[in-house]
Amino acid sequence: MLRCVTVFKLVFSLTLFGDGIASRQKDVVWYVSRLAQDLRKETAADGVLNCWMLQFSPDTKYSTLQSDLAQRLNTQHISLMQANQQGKYEFTMQDPNIAVIILGSKTLTMDDNNMSQWIENIHIECKTIVLFELTSNVNKFQRNAYYLTALGLLNVALIALNKNYVYTFYLNPLRVRGHAGFPGYNVLFYDRLKTLQITKLRAMYRNDIYTVGACENIVGEDIALLQLFAKTVNLELHLTKLQCNDNESISHCSSKLYNLDVLWNRNFFHRYNKFSVSCMEMEQIAIATPAGRLLTIWEIMLKPFQHSVWWLILALCLGFLLMEQLAPKMFTNSLVGLALFGFEKRQLRFTRPSEKVVAIALIVMFFLLKCGYETKLISYITQTPREPGALTIQDLRNRNITVYHRNFDTKPMDKLHGMLGKYESNIMLFDGLTVLENRVGLQINTMHNEATRDAEHSYKILPENVLEMLPFYTFHPKTLIRRPFQTFQYRVFEAGLPSYWRQANFKCPKLYKSITQINDQQTEHLIHVDNLKPLVLFFCLLWAIAIVVFVVEVIIVRCFACCR
């Protein structure tokens, strides 16, 4: 009789325990569906909510839990993808917004490659819920916690299926916080970046015009952006310069590094990379080509007027001189000498009205021509004119000029087909070659070239762009800073700080001081007496010719008078 009572008590207690577990699982199903509903409200603007339900427990007793939870999630119009421990991950699967892992009593280990592949492909912003059985074995719970954080699952909530406990993580160092009952959504899925105790941001970069400033005391605009971001979110920034070989790509060079949060150089992708953040501004690839040679002093003298104008002036002067010789009674004065130099054989007020009209017209015409001519010459003193160089890509092609580049992918550059050449040096120098580079780099290098070299090696940038591409910053797939940085970058861009940093490089005091010194030297050289000597000789020659012409005309007139 006593034995029967004992057996009855054991069966009754097991029944109550089973009912307790079943009730707990129903509460968990309701709680997980409520968390998914809260997440759906939070991400309503982002489109469809994708959910992964991964059944890693080998026990079949969780099949009811899985089916009930799947039914509840489907009623909330959530895109659900289910997989068991034999299911294989495929790259074409959509990334989840929420992942539910039914773990049960299973211990997560690195030996299970299939399970590790599933967890590794859950991105860091994904809200992850792990359903497990809580036991008295603390080491087992710790191994599961360290396993999840090692694979980059940080937004994790662990819900016990047999106890009334929910756990969440604090990171760096790893700390576990327990909650009794069912805490709210914001209690479990908070901003993990604000709870870090070890706050380090590890970034690698390679020298380029966006990471190195034009002066020693000014950093590049990308480094300034990263420093401001680290200061804003209270992170300790560790910058390391990449040491890459000449023919080594930046992706291959950075692959040898570990514990890297971000590769802080602008990269271009032919395919979408979900772990990258756009730079908010298109990169313009342009061409810099040597400007034409400086004109000589005699070419400068003829430059103010076109050749047709010079021939017209010469024909007009010769025509009037010839008319004076063939028909001396038509005009009593030499109208060309009168208009150019003011020489009068006879006072103009005593001449006929027709001669007055023609003389006044010539005087006004030559006066306007001289004003324009002198204005042009004065402008050439401040900026020495050059021969017209190439203005478009078609001009470069017509002149059979090779365009040199360093590390560009030339496949999308159809405009330069058959014109490209590889530049072997690591540093792009303005040494007479036509070069291909992004426009910002060309502008800075052009200013340096003008400040450090003479005017004969001047370059100009073609206004036409060869290509426009959108660059990206590349982040580690399991870093917490990508999404906060994306939001921060939008605000910085709207505030206009990138343009301010870029102008600081353009208006670098050291650079402008050098340019001013070079310009002062060039101006002093241009107005030197040796340079003005041809100009003085030119005008003296004109005056000598005018005097000779006037004397000859006077002699001829007197000879005719004596003969009569």
TrEMBL record:
<keyword id="KW-0732">Signal</keyword>
<protein>
    <recommendedName>
        <fullName>Ionotropic glutamate receptor C-terminal domain-containing protein</fullName>
    </recommendedName>
</protein>
<keyword id="KW-0675">Receptor</keyword>
<keyword id="KW-0472">Membrane</keyword>
<feature type="signal peptide">
    <location>
        <begin position="1"/>
        <end position="22"/>
    </location>
</feature>
<keyword id="KW-0325">Glycoprotein</keyword>
<keyword id="KW-0812">Transmembrane</keyword>
<feature type="transmembrane region" description="Helical">
    <location>
        <begin position="535"/>
        <end position="557"/>
    </location>
</feature>
<dbReference type="InterPro" id="IPR052192">
    <property type="entry name" value="Insect_Ionotropic_Sensory_Rcpt"/>
</dbReference>
<keyword id="KW-1133">Transmembrane helix</keyword>
<dbReference type="GO" id="GO:0005886">
    <property type="term" value="C:plasma membrane"/>
</dbReference>
<keyword id="KW-1003">Cell membrane</keyword>
